[in-house]
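Support request from a user on the community tier.

User writes: "When I paste my structure tokens into the form, the page sometimes reloads and wipes my input. The last time it worked, I copied everything first. Here is what I submitted, just in case something in the input itself triggers the reload:"
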């Protein structure tokens, strides 16, 4: 059975790149009827926070990427938080030491750093080996460690040989012998390093496919060697391409919003974000672009992941969001849009009126946060706009004649026509002025939609104000 995992470090918000990794894992698990596992990689105690873990989960849930096993829902392969698995890593490290595949190091981090610098200054690669550390293993040092409550670090004996990775996305990647030296798997603070914890967990959690960002490609060499030392076949690896900003540089804060939470707060819809993210490095076999989660699941396959960098185009995401927004049931749109109106200081009293407003403004809106400004004039009088002198006669007469008209465009339009003709005013100029008087703006939805919805009272009141008394 397919078992995949998303393994975020809770050191910040869920970003677009992480969300895409989670999504690909989720889609693959659902397509293959496998399991999607959430593992929290929180062994960097200084940078990891519970609050971020909660936020990560909240963002994943909001996107609809629900996991089958994880710290909150449990499962047979737990615990799912690395900080709760330290004993497991220690046992595995000890096992490697016993088997002669790893060794204890009694050098202090500063001493290791010194060695590294010395090697570099001699023009050598900073590769460690067991002999280099032997001199530190003295009875005094062991006593010191004991007194300070430290544990010796554990270094893995990196076999000096070539490793070949057959990556689903990148193809064959050859890591030549001597690329790296021995490396630390357990630190003297008793905590594992990323590569070690990752392999132990992927092994014990029976992960079959590792789908992750290609920034981890170089780590895979260490991980392949570790699998070998445990005499385990490695999982299938699929390293997905980096996400770049429109300028071709790695996507970062400079490019604007990058966290899922920020997009949510701006009024993006989860279905739009999911659809858009799926296309960053993956493509539908028939080139379809607008895809529901169900369609994504049924058409997903790893062989359509692209090795080329994906460009994050905020404009396209926004366009896609507009599409989803316009096509959702009006009840749902109303429910989602309401908080954005409240935040903008607009109180919704009449639900039916609110829905009609959304219906006629939604063509002009791509994210929920744009709704209030696009439709504020439906709820509040805009700042009065003065009617030009030569147009005042038309508006005065209209005000009179419309008093007793039934408020439908069928009844209103003929009155407009008649009065315009009488005054010899050009329709284009009249309608422009009327729009400014009613909405305070130069553009917006069609007047034929605005006028009936605003109602007679407001219509006449705004004209009166603009006539100056
Ligand atoms: N915690 C790692 C990260 O956040 C996980 C990498 C992996 O998937 O192996 O990048």
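"...and here is what came back when it finally went through:"
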């Amino acid at each position: 059975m397919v078992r995949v995992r998303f393994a975020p470090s809770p050191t910040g918000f869920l970003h677009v790149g992480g969300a895409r990794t989670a999504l690909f894992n989720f889609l693959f698990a659902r397509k293959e009827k496998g399991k999607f596992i959430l593992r929290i990689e929180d062994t960097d105690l200084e940078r990891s926070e519970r609050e971020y873990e909660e936020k990560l989960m909240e963002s994943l849930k909001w996107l609809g990427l629900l996991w089958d096993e994880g710290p909150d829902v449990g499962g047979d392969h737990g615990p799912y938080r690395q900080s709760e698995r330290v004993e497991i890593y220690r046992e595995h490290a000890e096992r490697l030491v016993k088997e002669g595949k790893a060794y204890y190091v009694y050098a202090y981090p500063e001493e290791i750093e010194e060695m590294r610098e010395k090697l570099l200054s001699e023009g050598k690669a900073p590769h460690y080996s067991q002999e280099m550390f032997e001199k530190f293993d003295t009875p005094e040092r062991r006593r010191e460690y004991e007194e300070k409550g430290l544990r010796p670090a554990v270094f893995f004996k990196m076999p000096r040989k070539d490793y070949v990775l057959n990556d689903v996305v990148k193809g064959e990647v050859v890591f030549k012998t001597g690329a790296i030296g021995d490396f630390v798997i357990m630190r003297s603070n008793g905590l594992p390093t990323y590569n070690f914890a990752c392999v132990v967990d992927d092994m014990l959690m029976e992960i079959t496919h590792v789908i992750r960002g290609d920034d981890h490609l170089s780590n895979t060499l260490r991980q392949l060697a570790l699998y070998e030392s445990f005499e385990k076949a490695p999982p299938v690896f699929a390293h997905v391409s980096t996400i770049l900003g429109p300028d071709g540089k790695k996507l970062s804060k400079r490019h604007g919003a990058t966290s899922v939470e920020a997009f949510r707060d701006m009024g993006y819809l989860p279905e739009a974000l999911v659809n858009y993210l799926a296309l960053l490095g993956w493509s539908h076999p028939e080139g379809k672009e607008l895809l529901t989660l169900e369609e994504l699941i049924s058409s997903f396959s790893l062989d359509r992941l692209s090795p080329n960098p994906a460009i994050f185009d905020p404009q396209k995401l926004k366009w896609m969001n507009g599409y989803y927004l316009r096509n959702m049931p009006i009840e749902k749109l109303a429910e989602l849009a309401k908080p954005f109106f409240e935040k903008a200081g607009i109180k919704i009293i009449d639900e039916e009126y609110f829905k009609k407003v959304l219906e006629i403004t939604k063509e002009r809106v791509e994210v929920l946060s744009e709704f209030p400004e696009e439709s504020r004039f439906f709820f509040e009088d805009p700042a009065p706009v003065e009617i030009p002198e030569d147009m005042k006669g038309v508006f005065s007469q209209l005000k009179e004649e419309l008093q007793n008209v039934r408020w439908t465009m069928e009844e209103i339009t003929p009155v407009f026509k008649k009065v315009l003709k009488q005054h010899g005013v050009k329709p284009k100029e009249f309608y422009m002025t009327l729009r400014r008087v009613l909405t305070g703006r130069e553009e917006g939805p069609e007047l034929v939609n605005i006028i009936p919805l605003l109602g007679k009272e407001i219509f006449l009141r705004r004209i009166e104000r603009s006539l100056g008394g």
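Agent notes: The reload is a front-end session timeout and is unrelated to the input. The pocket of glutamic acid is lined by residues 7-9, 41, 198, 212, 216 (CB under 6 Å). The CA atoms of residues 360 and 446 lie 8 Å apart. Escalated to web team.
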